[in-house]
Amino acid sequence: MWRGILIETKEAILTRRSVRSYEDRTLPAELLEEILEAGTYAPSAVNYQPWYFVAVQSQEAMEKLTGIMGRVSRKIEPSLQERFPTHPEVVAETTGFIRRLGNAPVCILAFALKPDYPKTAETIAQSVAAGIENMLLAATDRGLGSCWLTAPVETGMAAELRDTFAPGKGELLAVVTLGYAAQTPKAPPRKAGRYTII
Ligand SMILES: Cc1cc2nc3c(=O)[nH]c(=O)nc-3n(C[C@H](O)[C@H](O)[C@H](O)COP(=O)(O)O)c2cc1C
To answer: Cys staple from 109: which of 23, 54, 183, 186, with CB 3.0 to 4.6 Å?
Structure first.
C-alpha cells in the first residue's frame, strides 16, 4: 500500500495546514487510493470502522457538488459576518472557498454509517474524525494540501449531499478538499494552556 515514507510523522503533524486554493492538477489514482486507505486504518470504537468515504473527482460529480456548495456559501455568510465583523476579507475568502472548494481536483465526503451500533453518535463521530485526520496527515506526507470543512453540516445541507452522492450511507459529517496546494498558509498560532500533565 505505502510506497515509502517521504517525511516524518512529526513533520506531517506540524506542517499540515488548511489549504483553500489548489493548482489545476489532477491526482494520480493510486495516490488518492492511498489516502482513502489511510482513512480506513484509523482507530474506531470497538472496531466498528463506521466510516464511508466518497471521493468526488469527475467533472460531472464536481459540478453537482459545487452547485450545492454555492448554496452552503450563501447560507453561512451571515454567521461569518457576525464572527468577523471587522474582517470582511476573511468572510470573502471563506465564502469564496466554500463556493468553489478552492478549485480542488478531489473532494472527499466523510459519512458515519448508521446501522444499529450500540454506541453513541459522539463515539461514532470520533471514529470517523480519526479517519479524516489520518487522511489529512497522509495527504501532507504525499505533498498534498487539504482542508476539513463542516460548513455543509452547519448549514443543514448534509442530507442533500448524502442523498445526492451516497444514498443510504448514513450521515455526512464533513467534506475534505484535496489537491496540490496553490498557497502556503502560515500556521495560526496555537493557544497556550490547552493541556496539563497531572
Ligand atoms: C471540524 C472542523 C471543521 C472545519 N470546518 C471548516 C469550514 O467549514 N471551512 C473552512 O474553511 N475551514 C474549516 N476548518 C479548518 C479550520 O478553519 C482550520 O483547521 C483552523 O483554522 C486551523 O488552521 P490549520 O488547519 O491550518 O492548522 C475546519 C476544521 C475542523 C477540524
So the answer is: 54
pLDDT reading at 99 higher than 70: yes
Which residue out of 17, 147, 173, 178 has the highest number of ligand 1 atoms within 8 Å of its CB and is therefore the one to mutate? 147
Find cell 455543509 and name the residue: 152
Domain ranges of the chain: 9-57+101-179
- Check residue 103 and report its DSSP letter: G
pLDDT exceeds cutoff 90 at 125? yes
Report whether pLDDT(114) > 90.
no
8 pLDDT tier (thresholds 50, 70, 90) = confident
Average pLDDT over residues 164-176: 97
Residue with cell 444499529: 116
Does the C-beta of 18 come closer than 6 Å to ligand 1? yes
- Region of 135 (left: φ > 0; alpha: ψ -120 to 50; beta: rest) is alpha
Q: Is 147 in the pocket of ligand 1 (CB under 6 A)?
A: yes
